[in-house]
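Q: Please design a sequence for this.
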């Protein structure tokens, strides 16, 4: 049985090690608004950060196989667990963004978790520093058209801004 949680946010490993002042800061700002919300995550860093928050926050930790490099849980247990939820918003990041192929990743298991986050949410926010654009990786996550907003740290090239405008994807510079 799929569950729907109002104000549910799927937050994955994107908030680990990205260069936007610190993605964890943005996640923390969501919670500091003190509105009632649920965060579902596979990130140990997010679990530790929000584990002692107010009762307005419900935290759901997804298990799986621990991947030390990303400090997160991946694998079929993780993607299976995600499939039970429908989220209002998901915040993801990835290894590379390609003009033709969209969102890419260097790790197959991580790419599957990110695909599952996108599949199980209504709005999709990509949080990526400027170095990820026009980079390359082995595994496809999704097309750019599946992203509702991009949050990044520095102005993108004219080529990227034109492409995102063509896809009707707003850019938020932090």
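A: Design:
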């Amino acid at each position: 049985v799929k569950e729907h949680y109002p104000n549910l946010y799927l937050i994955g490993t994107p908030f680990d090690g990205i260069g936007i002042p610190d993605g964890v800061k943005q996640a923390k700002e969501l919670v500091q608004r003190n509105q009632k919300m649920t965060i579902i995550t596979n990130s140990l860093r997010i679990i530790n950060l929000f584990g002692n928050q107010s009762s307005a926050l419900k935290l759901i930790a997804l298990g799986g196989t621990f991947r030390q490099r990303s400090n997160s849980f991946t694998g079929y247990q993780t993607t299976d667990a995600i499939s039970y939820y429908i989220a209002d918003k998901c915040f993801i990041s990835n290894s590379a963004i390609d003009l033709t192929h969209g969102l890419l990743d260097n790790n197959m298991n991580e790419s599957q978790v990110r695909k599952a986050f996108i599949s199980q949410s209504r709005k999709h926010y990509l949080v990526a520093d400027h170095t990820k654009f026009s980079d390359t990786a082995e595994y496809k996550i999704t097309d750019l058209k599946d992203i509702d907003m991009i949050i990044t740290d520095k102005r993108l090239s004219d080529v990227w801004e034109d492409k995102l405008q063509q896809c009707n994807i707003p850019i938020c510079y932090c």
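Q: Thanks. Anything notable?
A: The longest strand covers residues 85-92. The radius of gyration is 15 Å.
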